[in-house]
């Protein structure tokens, strides 16, 4: 079963400096039908104006992943980490017993566009920790690249939960033939659920059209097929324990 979560149905918070779209209930947006998906709790699509951002604030017992789509996001935290993450970077913070951090647009002239993702950890009271890795566009073109996993395999960031997070760039334009070029078949094991989030462009999911901002919840499907449907397409795939 595939259930589409259209981008226009998401919650929204607009503070001028921040325009945020909420796939699941968050902040002042509450929808009992959309409280999360398996252990996936938050997918916020955020756009922050130049030189603005989130002042220092705290988190506990949450796996927080930031994925930048354009621009640069400056991060500082109470563990002593400080960096600017850019497209291709995957940042993971395990808040555990408590961590404070700030996130600001690193540019004085250009907006930053990113996804903030929260995943419930497999245990509370973990020691706070931080990890950041880069995954090139070439490595993600036309295939699913593992960027986060419970055991940190294949040089992915370690997420303290039974989840595999993949990213793929899918396009439809073969310069020679113009035919659909990028196609992925993904088998789904029993007792697993999959969430697809389209970050850019559009894709076909089992012939269903998904566009930027759309999500899809997938249960009881033995396999799915993803096909590029635009010149620039980018998706995140979460494979989660039910």
From TrEMBL:
Residues 146-240 form the Quercetin 2,3-dioxygenase C-terminal cupin domain. One of its GO terms (molecular function) is metal ion binding. Binds 1 Fe cation per subunit. Keywords: Iron, Metal-binding. SUPFAM superfamilies: RmlC-like cupins (SSF51182). The keyword DNA-binding does not apply. This is Quercetin 2,3-dioxygenase. The lineage of its organism: Bacteria, Bacillati, Cyanobacteriota, Cyanophyceae, Pleurocapsales.
């Amino acid at each position: 079963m595939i259930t589409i979560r259209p981008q226009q149905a998401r919650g929204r918070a607009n503070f001028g400096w921040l325009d945020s779209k909420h796939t699941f209930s968050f902040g002042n947006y509450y929808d009992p039908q959309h409280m999360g998906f398996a252990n996936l709790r938050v997918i916020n699509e955020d756009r922050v104006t130049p030189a603005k951002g989130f002042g220092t604030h705290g988190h506990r017992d949450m796996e927080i992943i930031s994925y930048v789509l354009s621009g640069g996001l400056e991060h500082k935290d109470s563990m002593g980490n400080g960096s600017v993450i850019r497209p291709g970077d995957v940042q993971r913070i395990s808040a555990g017993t408590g961590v404070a951090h700030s996130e600001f647009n690193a540019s004085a002239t250009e907006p930053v566009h990113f996804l903030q993702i929260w995943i419930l950890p497999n245990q509370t009271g973990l020691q706070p920790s931080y990890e950041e890795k880069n995954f090139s566009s070439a490595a993600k073109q036309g295939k699913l690249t593992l960027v986060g996993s419970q055991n940190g395999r294949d040089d992915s960031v370690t997420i303290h939960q039974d989840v595999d997070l993949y990213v793929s760039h899918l396009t439809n334009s073969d310069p020679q033939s113009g035919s659909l070029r990028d196609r992925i078949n993904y088998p789904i094991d029993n007792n697993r659920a999959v969430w697809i989030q389209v970050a850019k462009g559009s894709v076909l999911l089992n012939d269903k059209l998904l566009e930027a901002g759309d999500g899809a919840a997938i249960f009881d499907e033995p396999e799915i097929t993803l096909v590029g449907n635009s010149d620039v397409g980018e998706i995140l795939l979460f494979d989660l324990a039910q």
